[in-house]
Amino acid sequence: MKMPIIRVDADHPNELVDPSAYSRQINFVVKYDGAGELTPKDNVQTIDFKRTVTASPITGKIIEDGKYTTPWQSDQESFSDVVVPVVPGYHADKKMINGIKSVDSIEKTVNYAPNGRIIPVDPDNKELKDVKQPIYKTSATDATQVESGILLPKVKGYNCNYYARRSRQGYQGNL
């Protein structure tokens, strides 16, 4: 005797068959960290996968390679690239997260750190109190970079003896 079979998918569900057998979602999540209240919200992309399965209408058991069974398909082949948002006063460790092709959920993290600042010091290399410490501005087009050309503070009684050292936190200098 031939066992009866049925087609099961999103358009033809069956209460005996778990929907995860024919429908599932995967996510590409880019998380951001380190910029306090300015930290961007997570960037979440979703791809829906669907297929048709062949199942027993009596037991709900899926019949692998059955008459109606199809491969998983999606309307999107891969996740899109994510350009890292610029956060004023902070720089990121990545400029972009490349979109990728996947069949599983993926999570990536972008870390922000405060931009560097100019710290005016006296001839003995001691920090001057009550003097502005200008912060380097984040590039408007690249979250990993700071702009050059910071304005140095004018400090009464001192001349600028400036040197620059570039680091991931920006520039540091002597006044």
From TrEMBL:
InterPro entries referenced in this protein's UniProt entry, alphabetically: Mub_B2
Domain named Mub B2-like: residues: 19-115
Gene3D superfamilies on file: 2.60.40.4300
Pfam families with a match to the protein in the record: Muc_B2
Protein name: Mub B2-like domain-containing protein
Higher taxonomy: Bacteria, Bacillati, Bacillota, Bacilli, Lactobacillales
